[in-house]
Amino acid sequence: MASSCDVHVRICGQEMIKYDLEIKALIQDIRECCGPQPVLMDLNSTVKEKFNRLRQRIQDMEQMAKEQDRETDKQNILSETEGHRKQMFSNQVAWRKANLACKLAIDNLENDELLHGGDSVRQRKATKESLVQTSGDITENLMSISRMMSQQVQQSEETISTLATSSRTVQETNEEFKSMTGTIHLGRKLILKYNRRELTDKLLIFLAIALFLATVLYILKKRLFPFI
């Protein structure tokens, strides 16, 4: 049965996939947008909201990874999170390009209006100012993602360092075990040697007693029965 943490991780993963698809659809809408300005502003506002939610889910996944007891579970969650972060960064770049394409389309439309006698200077100025603001927001989001990736790299380096330390500890323990095994084998040989020596000593003692008894019997026989 899956634990509550596993369920939460699965739910977060599904939500991140949903936000990713929604962001891609909105970026496509921006790329195809030719104005007016309020439409573009609404689209960018929605995209920004989706990115904020996606970023929050990524942070939730990283926190859940830190709470894992097993290192394999932690690394699996971090690997999945890193994939979503890279996808978010790719979407940020696509978002910026889509805004630039939209700006070009709006400029072309305004140029056509000017050629036909339309007066849209103020609207064009507002559009450019809004696009500059949007580009600034996108740049800020890209910098935020860059900082998050830097933190993730640092965490990965710390994890690798911990694994290296654990590996050295296991290796040292293995060497100690081998040394202890050699000591045990040596002790076993010494015990076997001692047992054989003890058996030899008992045999010599038995022979000495037998020889002593034979000598005593011989002396008694000579003194008590000299004629035999």
TrEMBL record:
Please spell out the taxonomic lineage of the organism that makes this protein.
Eukaryota, Metazoa, Chordata, Craniata, Vertebrata
The UniProt keywords, alphabetically, are: Coiled coil, Endoplasmic reticulum, ER-Golgi transport, Membrane, Transmembrane, Transmembrane helix, Transport
Instruction: Show the Pfam families listed in the entry.
Output: Sec20
Note whether Transport occurs among the keywords: yes
- Sec20 C-terminal domain: from which residue to which, for each copy? 134-224
Residue ranges annotated as transmembrane are 203-220
Q: Which residues form a coiled coil?
A: 44-71
What is this protein identified as?
Vesicle transport protein SEC20 BCL2/adenovirus E1B 19 kDa protein-interacting protein 1
GO cellular-component terms in the record?
A: endoplasmic reticulum membrane; SNARE complex
Q: From what superkingdom does this record's organism come?
A: Eukaryota
What are the recorded Gene Ontology BP terms?
A: retrograde vesicle-mediated transport, Golgi to endoplasmic reticulum
PANTHER family linked: BNIP1-RELATED, VESICLE TRANSPORT PROTEIN SEC20
Chief location category: endoplasmic reticulum
* The keyword Membrane appears for this protein: yes
User: Member of which family?
Assistant: Belongs to the SEC20 family.
Q: Show the GO MF annotations.
A: SNAP receptor activity
Record membrane topology: Single-pass type IV membrane protein
Compartments in which it is found: Endoplasmic reticulum membrane
